[in-house]
Amino acid sequence: MMKKNRLFPIVMILCIVMTAQVTMAQEYLKIVSYNVLYGLKKDSVNIDRFVNFTKDWNPDVIALEEMNGYTQKTLEQLGQHIKHDYVLQSKEEGFPVAITSKYPLVNFRKVTENMWHSYLYAKIKGVHFFVIHFSPFNYQKRLKEVADVLAQAKEIPAHEPILIMGDFNSLDASDREQYGSKVLAGMLENEKKHDHIRNLNNGQIDYSVLGKLKEAGFQDTYRLLHQNFESTVPTFKDGNGQVKQSATGVPKRIDFIWANARAAKMVIKSGVIKNEFTHYISDHYPTYVELDLMK
């Protein structure tokens, strides 16, 4: 009996140590990608909405599209509000993309050449990030843009995790059943009215841009965990920033987070965030993914 009593504290200590080691070994990265509509319209009420959303959701990294009107300095100020000390913006004119993070950005790169808008590359906590915003008007331009991004991604060793995220302005073949004759008719009408819009491929909805990502071995992180369709547009705000009574418009999924095979194994959560904040922040809903960095 005495021997058992002496062993009990030792066993308890070993259990506590092993539990602590398991806890220390667990490390997660929560990531949001968000087209925020013309730099949150530089509206104080809307900026507060975004800050509150960030506090509520608490992402470690945020990829941002349409940071119009922001500079590196004002982005740093926004980063202070959301407790992201590391921020980077691709440019200061037009439609910049940006990234904010709780952790340092390593070997970052800003690319504006050959891009309709721009893209960013950075490495955070061992994960390679590409933040993109492709052309809204021409699928052939988007094909060139995705080729450029994939060419850089190919330079990264395949055993390292890579994420490509943002507003692709492209539709995915996995959602094909959602896009019937009504969607096609609307796109045809757009092309008749506007010479600069050429989003149809030989008169049909184009799926080739995102198809290039699949050919390169990337996987749609939403589809890794979900079978149902979930739109990223429209919201309760229109493209001019005006609040609507409801999310009227044709539901589409044009915002994605794509993962290479290594990163896909790390995905434990993914989805589209729809709540009292994101209904009204932008005309897009944010997408998210959570990675287990120890997987």
Characterization of the model:
The two termini are 43 Å apart. The protein has 10 helices and 14 strands. The mean pLDDT is 93. It is globular. Strand 5 (106-111) and strand 6 form a beta hairpin. The longest helix has 24 residues, at 2-25. The strands form 3 sheets. A 6-stranded mixed β-sheet has the order 3-4-2-1-14-13. Strands 5-6-7-8-12-11 form a 6-stranded mixed β-sheet. Helices cover 34% and strands 24% of the residues. It is α+β, with helices and mostly antiparallel strands and 295 residues long. Helix 5 (139-153) runs parallel beside helix 7 (208-215).
Q: Which percent range fits the helix content?
A: 25-40%
As a percent range, the share of strand residues is: 15-25%
Overall pLDDT level:
93
If strands are numbered along the chain, what order do they take across the biggest sheet? 3-4-2-1-14-13
SSE arrangement, N to C: HEHHEHEEEEEHEHEEHEHEHEHE
pLDDT < 50 runs, ≥5 residues: none
Query: How many separate helices?
Result: 10
Largest sheet: 6 strands, mixed
Q: Got a strand count?
A: 14
Using only C-alpha atoms, the radius of gyration works out to 21 Å
- Helix/strand/pairing category: alpha+beta
| First-residue to last-residue Cα separation | 43 Å
* Shape designation: globular
